[in-house]
Specification:
Four copies of one chain form a homotetramer. Chain A is an all-alpha fold and about 350 residues long. Chain A has 18 helices and no strands. In chain A, helix 8 runs parallel beside helix 10, helix 11 packs across helix 14 and helix 13 crosses helix 14. Chain A starts with 11 loop residues before the first helix and ends in a 5-residue tail after the last helix.
Chain lengths: ~350, ~350, ~350, ~350
Amino acid sequence: MKNSYTGKEQYYGDYLALDKILNAQFPESDVKGVDAHDEMLFIIIHQAYELWFKQIMHETTSVINIFKDDNINDNSEAMQVVTHRLERVVEIWKLLVAQVKVLDTMTPMDFLDFRDLLTPASGFQSYQFRLLETKLGLKMEQRFEQKYYQKQLREEHIEGIEEAEKESSVFELLDKWLSRMPFWNEEKYWNNFEIPTGADKNLHPFWSSYRYVYQSGLMGSEKEEIAMKSFDELFFSDQEQRPVRLSAAASRAALFINLYREFPLLQQPYRLLSLILEIDELMATFRYKHIIMVRRMIGMRSGTGGSSGAGYLQGAMEKHQIFAEIAGIATYLIPRTKLPKLTAELSKVLSFHI
Amino acid sequence: MKNSYTGKEQYYGDYLALDKILNAQFPESDVKGVDAHDEMLFIIIHQAYELWFKQIMHETTSVINIFKDDNINDNSEAMQVVTHRLERVVEIWKLLVAQVKVLDTMTPMDFLDFRDLLTPASGFQSYQFRLLETKLGLKMEQRFEQKYYQKQLREEHIEGIEEAEKESSVFELLDKWLSRMPFWNEEKYWNNFEIPTGADKNLHPFWSSYRYVYQSGLMGSEKEEIAMKSFDELFFSDQEQRPVRLSAAASRAALFINLYREFPLLQQPYRLLSLILEIDELMATFRYKHIIMVRRMIGMRSGTGGSSGAGYLQGAMEKHQIFAEIAGIATYLIPRTKLPKLTAELSKVLSFHI
Amino acid sequence: MKNSYTGKEQYYGDYLALDKILNAQFPESDVKGVDAHDEMLFIIIHQAYELWFKQIMHETTSVINIFKDDNINDNSEAMQVVTHRLERVVEIWKLLVAQVKVLDTMTPMDFLDFRDLLTPASGFQSYQFRLLETKLGLKMEQRFEQKYYQKQLREEHIEGIEEAEKESSVFELLDKWLSRMPFWNEEKYWNNFEIPTGADKNLHPFWSSYRYVYQSGLMGSEKEEIAMKSFDELFFSDQEQRPVRLSAAASRAALFINLYREFPLLQQPYRLLSLILEIDELMATFRYKHIIMVRRMIGMRSGTGGSSGAGYLQGAMEKHQIFAEIAGIATYLIPRTKLPKLTAELSKVLSFHI
Amino acid sequence: MKNSYTGKEQYYGDYLALDKILNAQFPESDVKGVDAHDEMLFIIIHQAYELWFKQIMHETTSVINIFKDDNINDNSEAMQVVTHRLERVVEIWKLLVAQVKVLDTMTPMDFLDFRDLLTPASGFQSYQFRLLETKLGLKMEQRFEQKYYQKQLREEHIEGIEEAEKESSVFELLDKWLSRMPFWNEEKYWNNFEIPTGADKNLHPFWSSYRYVYQSGLMGSEKEEIAMKSFDELFFSDQEQRPVRLSAAASRAALFINLYREFPLLQQPYRLLSLILEIDELMATFRYKHIIMVRRMIGMRSGTGGSSGAGYLQGAMEKHQIFAEIAGIATYLIPRTKLPKLTAELSKVLSFHI
């Protein structure tokens, strides 16, 4: 086969454009005549990060495109493709977390050899990483030290992120998709559904039942009033008054999927939710490893970008979790033995055709 | 060869006492007739943790015993043995961090199958882990939520830890060993040492010089007054007034080792300091992974021991760093090109005999 | 909650039977008064391996029990439980591979301190590991150096393995389960199935078609005759004449699952096959890491059990792959664009009820 | 600080030349209008490999330059710099081994979407990887399937490798450095050295002694004649008749370093030998992981470059070990308790000046 660009027979180095990739390292210490052997490592590890960010973007964008369809066909390959690609994103994040270990081989003294030459550039300015956070669902106003943020990035990059904020994020599309869960309002699925005596029947039959069982199972050390207030807020409050971003309908669907994940139709959705949490966790771990690495490298000094160094990262780690409400679902689970039994009609629709 | 206990020819299973090890799993769900497949995993993973804690204890105790010698001979194998064993401890901690991934395969619903059966037992009660923290240098009064701590542990375990606190910890022995650095007070090493014009000469020649160079290198964004106050506090304040536990003499030695690690005599000491920091970091990462895992498992609910679950772990992660001052040394480094040059006399004593 | 054995309130150490686990290390060097610090590591790492083997056995046995059912209901939770547990087995094997790194911290000289005391015990004698291989499907007669094998193990352990061989292994149950794939013989699914002109129509419509497309896609460098002979042998030869263990019917089903994994009904089966291959690979990697470790430890000398050391392991690594035919399926795939299109009737039955 | 190329204030994206790095992915499937989502992954993972190969080359070249000095000063920082950089190379190889897991997320069917478009390009053609093997010490004539090798690579790349073969490799420089070990021939170190009765005194006092002790320690299962023949060949045969590449003098020095690694002067050399073995092992593991990955991807079919795919890699894995003789040293160690005691004169010269 010929290479479409060179016109020659395919060759590894041409196909991978290695002339570009391997000639894109420009250590400032070389220009300045400073002896700083480790600057090459510093450049290459960050380039490797950016290559992988591009790949994560490739996968994330494809997932967004699938979810933009208002009517994903559960019998198409869509959901499997989504979970497969998110599994890949998980593997990439694991690699990026592991990659920090290579940078750990640079000692503080070795970094000081060229640190001044980089000022005020900083990893904070990684446009792809910011964009990725945005595509997952992080908003400018949620960001830790939002002003510092806007001061550091180039105008064109801030604009790029603002543009991206206008597009649907994974968070928003996931909320919509969860909220569409179709079988709540069809009477046939709930006519024969049993509600325990004592349950408050003002809610949908399922939630009347579930709320009652959950409340009964609280342990002594958990204050009932506080626990049920959280429960009601998450699953039943109006959109305007919600303390959290995820809609009540989506929260209920997410809980339902966790509870009944054994049904074939809910297996891929359960997998999807698990993968999204895993990605959120790995990004937190990535930030965490950077905190530790930066502390080791510069102690309590300012970062090259003038940030508070490790302090900034710590704040970002705490505030930049995107799918916190999905993670919080675990708070509201009950033991399998107490699970309300679904009706035969609903069970059927959650199953294979055979 | 005969086995000393069975008297029979050595056999793998006898040698490893596998009859004990593999018959020590007692799932409560079996007794109670509850169906909880995953309880076995829960038991085995914690037993594996405890086996490894025993091994870490074995290595840590041997290191403490070596350091108890007030006069470690740099020409003996002592320092190499110490660094070798700490390298092993590092590898074990890496494994224990990775081991969390196996527990991540237990879902919250699977945990709920048997969670109640364990109450109020909790990982918090791992005596070996507490003892290990103590042997490294953590004191009862530094512990996060000290009272909760004392309420949860059995009397005999609290006493065991109190006993261990009376013994020399790695922290204390390291402080003493660093403080003994011998060549500061011998005039022959410093007679020809150059001090830059402008330096405050009230200090030891080396520190007069170093303090001056460090101060000159501060960047605009770093408030000079605050920076130098920290510097002076760490390296020169009296023991009674110190805001930190590590002595001033030990802090100076630790900085010196970081700066001149190329000299043969300082190579193993540098390695030692690096390994101790790596262990501190890995223990923090271990706690961090547990925070994330506990959050995934029980959300915001109380831990089985009635603790605030993830909240407790977060507090412990922040407060239980033991070698913070050693880590902070990075704040006070300067570029190699500006390093004060040691005298020929001192250089010689830091080198091999040849 | 009370502990069922002690009758006391649950406590971490009681629940985990730590008095047994942590008092089961008996270094021979202690008895003999030999100084061999690393023997403790040697004991503990092998005990940790055995604990994990017990857990893998727990999962494997539960998978076997599910598969023993001749009529697994695809709408039950069975398949999801199986894949979930195999995912856990995968994570455990990853851990066990990583665990070798801890043993790598023992140097050959440190091993020599106590190596003689263990003779002729050897890791080869791990009964659980042998049993695990058997439960997966390895037969005595397939084992590398079968006689050496039988000489080393205790009579009771050989008998245990012989007993286990009589039970259904994962390999056999998987073969049966694959062979049962139900829709081949129902005419309604194949009446409208298109067969390309030129295809040999003596086979089932699907295979007539697939064989033709596969043959057309062979590259120049692949000898057509040899390739098609392998194809026909794997997928169509009689059981008596097969060069491989997996039945033709199972081989065809495995290929079909790989080709049409997007259909909901085939997603968990595809996952199952992938996981089984991953376990086979990880066990090979585990053996491989041991080869390297043993070579580093004893070079070309005999193992403590008198085996040829690394040589034995190399042989075992090559011969003990259990699911080779499943792995070989990749040889017979074709690009998606050329896949025969299934009929609407068959597509429906591979889908959800909705 | 200004960027030397753009003249603008340093900015992360400029400094890392991200416009080059992130615009160097040219999927053939895009040009050909083929739907092959995973080709991007295929390109990016290989580019990441090549970036890291460049970094390994950077470190390896610096190590070679240090070793070219015929007279490395043990009191300079040279040896520490070498071991530090090799530690980094070890961490990078660990990362590259882990990186294979990301490629494992590409299924055979996903690869088939674009596999034909790459023919006959192949990972085999990675010039940097070949060059790296050469710089470590692999010679063209040792390569597995040498002719296939020369057919696949471009003329300019073969020439590049032939040029590199003329330069000193790590293997050759290491051999020279080991052979220079200085104290064998100085009588003062050996005058008081004790030789056990019964030892053959024709050798240097140390080797007379060591050979005798080693021979006495052979176990029954090891044929004495064969064992001693190997011993004599490795440590005493003439260069012309040696079955192996490493010189006898270097082999003796390597053994001596392993035996007496506790002496300060031998600590870094011991570390160096360990690191070199670790790199050799990690490269073998890297090849091994590729074998498994290729088998999973294409089964038994030919590689895109027309190679026998996994078969080629297997051969390379077995033949391309570079430091086999260093690894083999473990065969000839004896227990510490039987080590010949060095004289006080020699001990002193292996120690610090203090």
